[in-house]
């Protein structure tokens, strides 16, 4: 069992390294991350309607309200070619003949994409440093809430990544994968919350519809309170989408 697990990790790491190298070997990877940081910077420090400098008090609420919307574009851009290009180039058929499990492929791709999302997030810590330096009268930022918000943002990014991989496994067209991922991520994030506001669901069902969506749990974690129910939700949705990705890969190979 120990040897099997060791081999599993070694193969997964090989796929992980290949994915990272492939992403950063072209300008697309750098452009995606730069645009994410540029969009955040413009909205949070330049555009007057959303600028943190015009809020009157030091906080990073704007970042954690804005970042999920930018993630809706960034993460599908990261994942759209991850599996679709493998099928388009015929590499997936080759991988299926090797002593590699489907889970090794899925976890290797997923881990690499999550790391890229994390790389995009790390520079935003500069915003925390900047707002701390600008805080007046010796006041300080609510570090507990900010840490919780970053944890929520990372969990959100991981879930969006799993959805993006699933979308990429459905087609050989990266643009189609990109659009499907955006639509599905939006439905999971905002769709249930919007549906709960329909009058017919008021009186009890609206609460459960909100709980079925990502936004409810993201907002809960962002308050700085790490509830096990929120963590279980994110892990469950991520696990479900990765399982669907595995099933999609198997089906396409069998049909091919």
From TrEMBL:
<keyword id="KW-1133">Transmembrane helix</keyword>
<feature type="transmembrane region" description="Helical">
    <location>
        <begin position="150"/>
        <end position="167"/>
    </location>
</feature>
<feature type="transmembrane region" description="Helical">
    <location>
        <begin position="174"/>
        <end position="192"/>
    </location>
</feature>
<dbReference type="InterPro" id="IPR019860">
    <property type="entry name" value="Motility-assoc_ABC_perm_GldF"/>
</dbReference>
<dbReference type="GO" id="GO:0005886">
    <property type="term" value="C:plasma membrane"/>
</dbReference>
<feature type="transmembrane region" description="Helical">
    <location>
        <begin position="105"/>
        <end position="130"/>
    </location>
</feature>
<feature type="transmembrane region" description="Helical">
    <location>
        <begin position="231"/>
        <end position="249"/>
    </location>
</feature>
<dbReference type="Pfam" id="PF12679">
    <property type="entry name" value="ABC2_membrane_2"/>
</dbReference>
<keyword id="KW-0812">Transmembrane</keyword>
<feature type="transmembrane region" description="Helical">
    <location>
        <begin position="66"/>
        <end position="84"/>
    </location>
</feature>
<dbReference type="InterPro" id="IPR051449">
    <property type="entry name" value="ABC-2_transporter_component"/>
</dbReference>
<feature type="transmembrane region" description="Helical">
    <location>
        <begin position="27"/>
        <end position="46"/>
    </location>
</feature>
<keyword id="KW-0472">Membrane</keyword>
<protein>
    <submittedName>
        <fullName>Gliding motility-associated ABC transporter permease subunit GldF</fullName>
    </submittedName>
</protein>
<dbReference type="GO" id="GO:0140359">
    <property type="term" value="F:ABC-type transporter activity"/>
</dbReference>
<keyword id="KW-1003">Cell membrane</keyword>
